[in-house]
Amino acid sequence: MFSTQANTGPSWENKTSRAFWRGRDSRRERLDLVVMSRRQPELVDAQLTNMFFFPKDEKKYGELARHVSFFEFFKYKYQLNIDGTVAAYRFPYLLSGDAVVFKQESDYYEHFYGDLEPYVHYWPIKHDLSDLLKTLRWAKQNDATMQEVARNGQRYARENLDPASILCYHVRLLQEYSSRLRSKPKFTKDFEKVEQPSEGNCKCQKYKKQVHEEL
């Protein structure tokens, strides 16, 4: 996270006004995105870096691209967050950079999603990506709006998704999980007790709220 924050690419006005994506073939929509990119390269730069799930077809999807760092991503104004086998893990890092994240509608989520507002912190796109090209054309004509969304997403990530905040969330999650166990763990004589800090050392009170009901 800190590395991404420190490497956000060129200034906004010097970034390329195209959507950028690299990744493996872990979902059909990712393949559709690559096909879309090959047809509309002036709007989308999307390539596969690995293929494990679907048959290789260079004629349809092109050759596999080399891996690039997140620092390369931020040469572009528009970032694409597309599900893989689960929620795409790169979302927090994309938010922390100086770019707008176009997030695919999804049933997957991470703990912080409930804090985010569409069109404020990120720009939503349909699950099947059917509105992506139209949205990108609109974005190019509304640059000031896109820059404001990029700034909002970046501000949220930097204030709430740093390592200390993520650790604090997991502390609260495990505390809540522990409190709901029907039977307590049984200790044996070879266990060694590790003293834990008091709850008062964790300052992120906002994670007390419940957004989902897994527990």
Automatic annotation (TrEMBL):
One GO CC annotation: endomembrane system
Domain of life: Eukaryota
Glycosyl transferase CAP10 domain span: 1-184
GO MF annotation: an example: glucosyltransferase activity
UniProt cross-references to PANTHER family, sorted A to Z: GLYCOSYL TRANSFERASE CAP10 DOMAIN-CONTAINING PROTEIN, KDEL LYS-ASP-GLU-LEU CONTAINING - RELATED
Protein name stated in the entry: KDEL motif-containing protein 1-like
Species for this entry: Elysia marginata
Lineage: Eukaryota, Metazoa, Spiralia, Lophotrochozoa, Mollusca
